[in-house]
Amino acid sequence: xxxxxxxxxxxxxxxxxxxxxxxxxKGTRTTSRIMIVLALLGFAFxxxxxxxxxxxxGHIPISNLHExxxxxxxxxxxxxxxxxxxxxxxxxxxxxxxxxxxxxLTSSILPRKIEPLSPVLQSYWFGVHTVxxxxxxxxxxxxxxxxxxxxxxxxxxxxxxxxxxFQRLPNLQILDEINYRLITIxxxxxxxxxxxxVIWAESAWGRYWRWDPKEVWSLITWFIxxxxxxxxxxxxxxxRRAAILSIVGFCIVLFTFFGVNLIMKxxxxxx
Amino acid sequence: xxxxVQGVNHKTAGVDIREKLAFNGSKLExxxxxxxxxxxxxxxxxxxxxxxxxxxxxxxxxxxxTESIRNFLSEFHGIKRADFERALxxxxxxxxxxxxxxxxxxxxxxxxxxxxxxxxxKDCFAFALDKKTTGVLLxxxxxxxxxxxxxxxxETRIAENAVSISFAAVELAxxxxxDLSGKxxxxxxxxxxxxxxxxxxxNNGVAGVMVxxxxxxxxxxxxxxxxxxxxxxxxxxxxxxxxxxxxCSTGAPAYVLNKDQMQKVMKERRQKPVFIxxxxxxxxxxxxxxxxxxxxxxxxxxxxxxxxxxxxxxMAEAQKAEAIIDEEVEKFSRWMSALESVPTIVALRxxxxxxxxxxxxxxxxxxxxLDETKIKAVDYMAGAIINKLIHPPTVALKEDVDxxxxxxxxxxxxxxxxxDEE
Lengths: 271, 422
Fold this sequence. Notes:
The structure holds two protein chains of two kinds. Chain A is mainly alpha-helical. Chain A has two domains: 1-113; 120-271, no CATH class. Chain A is 78% helix and 0% strand. Chain A contains eight helices and no strands. Chain A has helices at residues 2-25, 29-57, 65-87, 92-109, 124-159, 172-205, 213-235, 240-263. By secondary structure, chain B is α/β, with parallel strands linked by helices. Helix content of chain B is 57%, strand content 14%. Chain B contains 15 helices and ten strands. In chain B, the strands form two sheets. Chain B has a six-stranded parallel sheet. Chain B has a four-stranded antiparallel sheet with strand order 2-3-1-4, with helices on both faces. At the A-B interface, helix 5 and helix 6 of A face helix 8 and helix 13 of B.
């Protein structure tokens, strides 16, 4: 049952992603509405899937890569809805839904079996640490989408070729502001995730920090986004540079999440 | 009975003729009554704007009315017919309807899709209504002209995207800044186009206007007009830090702002975006500045390109608009033909029924012994015969043909339907 819910959500996200890409080529009010409705339906099934998995396993379902990327997608969509509701910026879905779908697709091909929770994870910190990390990463994912939108729109304005998406993309200032706001949300969450991780590591493994690849890459991510905020406050770096940094930042987030687990040897290997 | 449009507009006549035929001020009222009083004219409305003088009428006889309206124009304005007839266009029937719809939808305008004309059509209609010179037909036509224009506006993108340089500048500013209100603006130099763009920006809520002029007095003058403050030319670099939007139009022979200077300004502004419009020729601002982050520089050619692209876009939309207008003209023609032929059809049927009743009475008087059922049978047969007889003319009247007026007249004559009704 819980698996069917996942497939249903995946299918609806696919449909929503397809509509969102179509919207880039020929958008009307109806296409964007269809895209949102499909995403909402998918989100409903997805939520049900996560709840059922929680009930069936007895622990927060973020204990393997399948569950984690599913939960990651869930956070991104959640945040996307909030942004959509608050700012109603055109075409955001076209830059977010495809990312969500790819993430869910990755999740769907990873082993889904519910395994008993390894002793290390049986801790109060498990839920706190993972939820903080993924909501933070979700904010970075949206900053990535908004950053790309900024670069596209900036290219139109700078090159003075005002065709294509120029009319439908929002203005540069709002894109820059949303990008900044997302990072101001994501960075503190990431900071807290790292702190809780450190405390948890001490209680689980007896050491706060052991330069594990996961730890190292998380720290790199943390520095990147700290730099984004720092240079904006100190030197007023904004616009194009901030957008590029937020895109680079998210690529490192993805590497920390998938790359480290699949390529490197890490004791943080569950997720 | 036909809709007839005669007049001159920017496509058919130069301003020398248009101004002679214009109905300005009190002439409008005089004109519309004069027009309505012509013997062939049943309903009349009059549109007089700077681009067109058009007389919308519903007339009993198109060719006679054409003549008398021309004579009327000649007498009213005191010019010889020969002086304006060559510039005059005359349209009747569905062509006239299409013309009115195209005018109201701004397809006939000098600037395709401009919004003023619809307001002018509304005023023209309101005036005619007020003076009671229109009736059922023109009222419906004018209402349809307005609703068609609205349909065109919502179903096509004909009115989207700026088609003048000053509006294009405002539109671009909106794609760079979230909100123009609270943005500060510097007018560097003066000039018609620059001042127009400045006015558009101020109308869109731009505050904190600074005016820089080589002649300080002229700067003060302009500044008071925009509720801003004047800045001496020597000081403009220091003040540049505070400007989010800059319009430059000085007569300087060389660049007044180079990349290094702008880079310093940007640093001081902490990289807050700047939109610079350089409409001076030769250019006054080093084009290299556009390569700086968060600086968007447009020169007059760039803006013209934007306008050209938008104009092409509007022309493509105009194609869609023509299809909508075809549809509406068709609908209106159907309504009008129904309106024209329905009274005749009704009269024909009444006449037939009358004959049937009369003949039945005579028949009953002649054969008083007949019982109910037989009388009923005879009545039934009489009904069938008249139905068969009036069926072909009824069908012909309902058909959409060009010479319906003649057909109606012929049928009236053949069946002796009389001219008692209007």
